[in-house]
Amino acid sequence: MSNESNSGNGGGKFDQARRNFLRGIGLGTAAAVAQPAWGGQTFQDTFADFFQKDYRRMSAEEIEAALERIERKAEARYGVEIDCQNTLPQPGVVYGYAINISRCKGYRDCVHACVKENNLGRDSQVQYIRVLQLDQGDFNLEHSDHYYEPETVPVEGKHYLPVQCMQCDDPPCVKACPVEATWMEPDGIVVVDYDWCIGCRYCMAACPYWARHFNWTVPEIPAEEMNTNTHYLGNRPRPRGVVEKCHFCIHRTRKGQQPACMEACPTGSRIFGNLLDPDSEIRYVLANKQVFRLKEDLGTEPKFWYFSD
Amino acid sequence: MNSIILQCMVCVISLVALQAAAQESPDSSQPLRFEGYPGASEFTVVPRKDGLFFYPGGQCHEAMEPNPEIRTLNTMHDAEIEHGRGRIWCLSCHNLEDRNYLNTLLNELVDFDESHLVCGGCHANRHKDWYFGAHGKRVSNWQGDRTLYNCTHCHNPHKPAIEARAPKPAPPVRAGLKREQGTEHHKSSIWDAKEEHEEQ
């Protein structure tokens, strides 16, 4: 009764406006179904996508529904049945990474393992890892070259420096985001909600490490090369027009596996582990090797160290 | 009174325990066997024997007389050992009597699956780093059971330097951008610049 009395005078006008608005959305989404930019999808899925909340404000059920929608869309777009998960951070774990630059030979195995693992578009030119080649005795990143293509590496007189997202503890990219589509998870990984990102690319300008990448095109992935083990905040198929970045292989590391770049490295230059565990390998490196961080003076507190021995 | 008796008993027991410990302690004339670095978390080593071409070496060497003389081999084994720059040869690591085993510098027999113990005899710093995870490669996980590759999975013990090989393809140059030649066109070191200046 009270509802009726509240929507008494003028309610009809408001109802009409709302009905028109909703009809507009319906027509818009019907057009999207007719000419899908992001794969064929049902009206319900499109509608639910439109009203999907930020990852951090979704309830468990809403996330579950979102994961199912992602799986359906991937099937429609790539013809592959993927498994999209929402593995939560482990308590008492903050990830850290270290690279032994005296052992890196510049093979780029990490780069290509990463592309494959993270379902990066094969033609969209996005690669999370850059292996920089520098002159021996030179550490000026302005002089570096990551397009090197000699017959064999290592080239005499050169050294190699892989650069990727440093998972800063005080990340400038997160501060730059106007819609809070990117944030640091409790285990220290800086993640992006691709459904919340508006593609303004402020974060790319804010990142001092060139670690964020923009999808100018819809990522093209051959169906047989699709990695079906995916995570909402990680390597699930991305739409065009959003920013993405290295997420320490969140779908692997949260289950105790190594990141793909580390597993692929044939030299064992890469060391990954829990910074909060005093017996971990990463803590041994930090305590016993002369480690440094890139552009440390910027104060972004990268959780990514380099050392040589 | 009771407490005095109790204290005496404790003293006697601890003395006996100390004596027992002294008797159990190893003979000082015998060198201690290496048993890993304290504090390193436990691990297993990926077996190596399955991948060895000549293993078990005893099968061939059974019929041969052991010859400890240092010489250039004219057999199916590599004549050149590019390890140690001429300072070591076969029997520095392989056991003379039993070819199915390796040998440490203290003449302890070492199984081929534990060959890191032989390597560690000389490369102690690297060996320690390997124990703690700063050198070498861990298999597939960062958490849970720790499995490590052996030294000889990556380094050929007869030629341990890692050989150069082709890199994977370079990233594509972004549409509209030009590839800068990076380090090609500039001299970084002060001595190069100085030499050029002097030449002029």
Description:
The complex is a heterodimer of chains A (309) and B (200). In chain A, β5 and β6 form a beta hairpin. In chain A, the strands form 5 sheets. A 4-stranded mixed sheet of chain A has the order 10-2-12-11, with helices on one face. Chain A has 2 domains: 71 residues, no CATH class; 225 residues, Alpha-Beta Plaits, CATH 3.30.70.20. Chain A starts with a helix and ends with a strand. Chain A is an alpha+beta fold and 309 residues long. Chain A is built from 10 helices and 12 strands. Chain A is globular. With 200 residues, chain B is mainly alpha-helical. Chain B has a domain of 109 residues. In chain B, a hairpin with a 5-residue loop joins β2 and β3. The longest helix of chain B has 23 residues. Chains A and B meet through α5, β3, β10 and α10 of A and loops of B.
| Relative strand content of chain A | 15-25%
Task: Trace the largest sheet of chain A across and list its strands.
Answer: 10-2-12-11
Q: Unreliable segments of chain B (pLDDT under 50, ≥5 consecutive)?
A: none
Largest sheet of chain B: 2 strands, parallel
Largest interface, with Cβ-Cβ < 8 Å?
A-B, 52 and 39 residues
State the CATH architecture of the largest domain in chain A.
2-Layer Sandwich
Which structural category do the helix and sheet elements of chain B fall into?
mainly alpha
Number of helices of chain A: 10
- CA radius of gyration of chain A: 23 Å
Number of strands of chain B: 4
What is Rg of chain B? Answer: 27 Å
User: Could you give the order of strands across the largest sheet of chain B?
Assistant: 1-4
Kindly report the oligomeric state of this protein: heterodimer
Secondary-structure map:
The complex is a heterodimer of chains A (309) and B (200).
Chain A: H1 2-6, H2 11-34, H3 43-50, H4 60-78, E1 83-85, E2 95-100, H5 109-117, E3 130-135, E4 158-163, H6 172-176, E5 182-184, E6 190-192, H7 202-206, E7 212-214, E8 229-231, E9 243-245, H8 250-253, H9 260-264, E10 270-274, H10 281-288, E11 291-292, E12 304-307
Parallel strand pairs in A: 1-8, 2-12
Antiparallel strand pairs in A: 2-10, 3-4, 5-6, 7-9, 11-12
Chain B: H1 2-24, E1 44-45, H2 58-61, H3 90-93, E2 102-103, E3 109-110, H4 116-122, H5 124-132, E4 147-148, H6 151-154, H7 190-199
Parallel strand pairs in B: 1-4
Antiparallel strand pairs in B: 2-3
